[in-house]
Amino acid sequence: MSWVDDWGLTLTTFLPALGVVVLMFLPNRETLVKITGTVFAGLALIAGILCAVRFDYSRGDQIQLKVDATWIETIGARYHVGVDGMSLPLLLLSVLVCFLCMVYMWWHIPEPGKTKAFFALVLLLETGMNGTFVALDLILFFIFFELVLVPMYFMIGIWGGPNRDYASVKFFLYTLFGSIFMLLGFLALWIHSGAETFDMIALRETTGNASELFQNLVFLGLFLGFAIKVPMWPFHTWLPDAHTEAPTVGSVLLAAVLLKMGTYGFIRIALPILPDAAVTFAPVIGILAVIGIIWGSLCCFAQTDLKRLIAFSSVGHMGFVMLGIATLTDRGINGAIFGMVAHGLITGMLFFLAGSIHERYHTREIADLGGVLKQIPRFGSVFSFAAIASLGLPGLAGFWGEMLALLGAYQPAPGLNVELFRVLMVIGGIGTVLTAGYLLWMIQRVNLGSVPDRFASGKGVFDVERLEWVSWVPLLLLIVVAGFYPALLTNVTADAVGGLAGIFGA
Amino acid sequence: MTQPSVDWHALAPEIVLASAACLVLVADLFLPRNAKWIAMPLSAAGIIGTLAAVVSLINTETTTLAGTFEVDAFSLLFKGLFCILGLIILAISFHYFRAGSYYQGEYYFLLLCSLFGGLVIASARDLISLFIALELISIPGIIMVALRKGDAKSNEGALKFFLFSVLSSAVMLYGMSLVYGVTGSTILSEIRSSIGSADEPLVVLSVFFVVVGFAFKISAVPFHFWAPDTYEGAPSPVAAFLSTASKIGGFVGLLVLMFKAFPEVADAWAPAFAVLAALTMTVGNLIALRQQHVIRLLAYSGIAQSGYILVCLALINPENPAANDQAFAAAVIYLAIYGIMDLGAFAAAVAFARRGGSYFISDYAGLWQRSPALALLFGGFLISLAGAPPMAGLIAKLFVFAATIEAEVYWLAIVMGVNTVIAAWYYLAVIKKMFFETPELDEQVEVPYLMTAAMGLAAALLVVLLVYPPLLTNLADRSVF
Question: How high is the pLDDT of residue B1?
Fold first, then answer.
């Protein structure tokens, strides 16, 4: 098994890309394509699990399964990959959700079909996402970060809803804009390092003597790139459009994994490399995060489209994650990572459900729906379960992230304004109430009440299918497990987060 | 006066290519009308032979012909690039010219002559051979543009190209004569050593004229007006040639001149290039936003892309040699990747226009349903031009950005960043047409195997260069003067 130490992460990252190449040269036969796509996603999942098995959890703060090879010599960029306690959970989330999406796609491919292209795009996307979480070299990170643009753009543009042109281009340009400034920030770090290295770990040692202005400017560049990806208020406007128009699997991947690339960028790159600037920017990030929480929740009340509602709820949830990060504390950042994973599981699940509702009722208008629980009880139960998990009921995964983030805000890292963060905590707390409000209201309107006349015949309205169960059960189980036994996750992240929070003296 | 010694091995690529050109011209005389196409495989064989000669010279560093001709990593890299581009151009020309059945032999002869100019310019190390090589690239180009004799646009394009070309040559020659007057030599290395002590205003004036002359050749704003009309009127494989190999030839000449002859006076010309670069990419991109004709779109996009390469020249600062090397390598990398991806995009446009003959972007609607492979390749090249993975356009931009930051010219980095986003808009507009809309016609667009193979080769090269950039970047690093 020692080969996993050298090859595990590389395989996890590039097996899906290999799948794309294989798919390209396969004849266009539906079943063959589906099997091949699923096999490669499955192999990546297995490779990811093997990595998790080989990972030494007692040394979670160390980079493990590391590969550091020469790559672009002339500028000092290296093929440097590895995982620690912060990135491993996200990597596992990515490989799991991608595989479940593959299973779901056996059941359903939206118009206009084109199975082969759809599977290939999901695999390409997976390479980009996995690579982002394992890369320890800024250039490598940048390429993987950019790699997700193209497949997601095509996924929205080809299989998306009526307004897909607008949504796909907006997604692409917005993200591209952010990532260019992020790249400029990376390059500035590289020049400043003197050693001309893009190594994320080594760069931590080099910024200590940098001027305040330099640190702040570079942080601003990185902030733009990551904040757009998260997305933080006020850079969030691409998200509802992209989510609403994207096909089910696209929305799931976007919510479950893609958004985490932004928050992960903060804790992996921006905070440890530019700690002084992070302290300067933390209040701004905290304020924007809380505005996002309230703004996202209020917008949810006004939505008539089920998917758009879930999309705006993402803005709110990611606001909690960013608030946790902004506290720069052990608790807050642990909470943020917990929130990322929980949001990935829960919101991914909700988007699956929204897609399946559309398959059954051919509408996502909340006003047109009703009595789902009565008509298809198992489906309705799952829907209620996911919505309640999303509102942060204690005992389910959604609770811990929000709780820890708010708790972190009570006592932020030294050097931060305690009063400000306590105010933010209170406002964030109000946000949790709003969250509960719109989600319960959603359950009430969609799940409860009487079945509208047009669906009364029950034609085409079927309960949860077998393949749906297969793709959903792992998520549902993990939501419960993470809720009841949060230490499962926090034990993995604690050491690594402790090291990060240690920089800020908390 | 003694006869200069000649290193025949160093000249081998040029000799092979020139012989092939002559062979093609003579063979054409004896070929029956329906067998004129044989000129194309003959030319291909000639280019492959040239490539073999280039490969045989790897790791050679030598000068010959009294110091006017140098073989080094830089010249070999570009000779190799010209050969690869030449082969792809042959592949996209074959069906086009055979179907039109006009002037096949002449066309291939002219194309080889132009490529010969490209090979020479990569090695030219004095003003005269530099100038002659540059004219060798453009004059056959003018004739090639006019090959569609019956078409008024072709004639218009050729005339514009001719007039601008002659004008720019005159301006450049005037500048070169001033340089000779100031320094007393035409050999670049000798110019370099004596120009620092020369009369400054005169030096600035002469460099200015030379730069303006080159700016016409590489269609930098505001000297770009001929390019879109010429590309549109020309037979489209010729437009592909002008936008890639010919333009790269101009850039190679510019790089040689600026780095071999004028580096000591970079203070005088680098700021001019900064303005030129910012203008070129911004104007090129903004006008490209409005284009409906795919060749004109590619023409303006090509202008904007030149802007990114000009940035590298704007970064030169005599005080900072390490940053200069980085900028030079970035220019080389950008040129190589640009050549391949832009040629790929042109090839796709030619392939699409072969049936039905349309160049309008609106006719690309739903191309994905009509020809998945063509749409995928074209889309890939456009994405690469926009600077996103999974092809190497990103690497090219990365190196230019890195050089800009290293030289601490931050405002240009910002201008470039904003331009990248603007450019993505129009590349995506074409992709949107091809992939997101439903076709008006169901008829399949058939692409000849030869063209698919050429585009596939370009695409594969670009993917490999993204995954493993050192293949190019190490060469570029070694080619720094």
Answer: 56
> Domain boundaries in chain A?
3-503
What single-letter DSSP state applies at residue A453? G
Tell me whether 0.90 is exceeded by the ipTM.
yes
Using alpha carbons, select from B63, B114, B121 the residue that is nearest to residue B90. Answer: B114
Chain A, window 106-125: residues with a beta carbon less than 8 angstroms from a chain B beta carbon: 124
CA distance A175 to A14: 23
- DSSP annotation of B124 reads B
pLDDT-derived band of residue B438, with 50, 70 and 90 as boundaries?
confident
Instruction: Work out the pLDDT band at B196, boundaries 50, 70, 90.
Output: confident
Contact state of B388 with A71 under an 8 Å Cβ cutoff: no
pLDDT of residue B90: 95
Q: Which two tokens stand for residue A119?
A: 């599977």
Is residue B51 over pLDDT 90? yes
Q: What pLDDT score was predicted for residue B323?
A: 86
* Chain B contact for A254 (CB, 8 A cutoff): no
For residues B270-297, give the mean pLDDT. 94
By the 10 Å C-beta count (0-12 exposed, 13-18 middle, 19+ buried), B66 is classed as: middle
Which residues in chain B have their CB less than 8 angstroms from residue A73's CB? Answer: 470, 473-474, 477
What per-residue confidence (pLDDT) applies to B263? 87
Asked if A150 and B473 come within 8 Å (Cβ–Cβ), the reply is: no
Residue B41 CB contacts under 8 Å (≥ 6 apart), including other chains: none
Instruction: Tell me which chain B residues have a C-beta less than 8 angstroms from the C-beta of A147.
Output: 389-390
End-to-end alpha-carbon separation of chain B, Å?
31
d(CA A203, CA A491) in angstroms, rounded, equals 27
If you count them, how many residues does chain B have? 481
User: A129 CB near a chain B CB, below 8 Å?
Assistant: no
Distance (Å) from the alpha carbon of B421 to chain A's nearest alpha carbon: 6
